[in-house]
Specification:
- With 197 residues, the chain is an alpha+beta fold.
- The protein has a domain of 127 residues.
- The protein has 7 helices and 4 strands.
- It has a 4-stranded antiparallel sheet with strand order 2-3-1-4.
Length: 197
């Protein structure tokens, strides 16, 4: 179970989702920033948005904490945006790890980045534990009644094409217009109520 000593800030999950939506980052998964595609997408976005700060943060990483034993949550309330990441081994000297310190430019860059994406969050050292870095997930189950045309589509678009084909197969008989249905329901006549002003 990897454990890291990291320097950086917590990025609340709600703010991650907002950032991904506002920046229109289709390849980013807000629930797991450590996924390779998400990390690449977010790093590219950060470099485009804040090139000066990112030039001072060449080792920037997104770190997640995760407990695979806790089946009540799918993600933690925040991820970590880190400029320094040390994996902790048994008997490590924490002061020695922290002693390397930060340059003034690096400190200023991570503080400015924090102010842009997670204003008000503490900038400091954190111990982060992750019980499953890769976060294995079972493959999507396929339905037995898939049409030959639908089986040629990708798994991500499979559900939407199935929903469309189900609605096309089960057409409901046409109903009478709603006005006739209401008239039947209310005994044939609808009356307007009088308004008293």
């Amino acid at each position: 179970m990897p454990t890291w000593l990291v320097h950086g800030f917590r990025w609340p999950r709600a703010q991650i989702r907002i950032h991904i939506i506002l920046q229109n980052l289709d390849d980013a998964a807000p629930e797991w920033l450590m996924a390779p595609a998400t990390t690449a997408c977010m790093m590219q976005n950060f470099k485009e948005q804040w090139p000066e700060q990112m030039a001072q943060l060449p080792d920037l990483r997104f770190i997640e904490q995760y407990d695979p034993e806790d089946l009540t949550v799918k993600d933690q309330p925040y991820a970590y945006v880190c400029d320094i990441v040390h994996e902790i081994k048994l008997g490590v000297d924490v002061e020695e790890m922290r002693g390397a310190g930060l340059g003034d430019d690096q400190w200023a860059a991570i503080a400015e980045l924090r102010d842009k994406v997670a204003p008000g969050e503490k900038l400091g050292w954190f111990v982060v534990v992750n019980g499953d870095i890769e976060r294995w997930a079972p493959p999507l189950e396929e339905d037995d009644d898939i049409t030959p045309d639908a089986s040629a589509v990708s798994a991500s678009s499979h559900r939407s094409s199935m929903a469309q084909s189900d609605t096309a197969r089960t057409k409901e008989p046409e109903r009478p217009s709603s006005s006739r249905s209401f008239k039947k329901w209310f005994g044939g006549k609808l009356r307007k109520t009088k308004r008293y002003d």
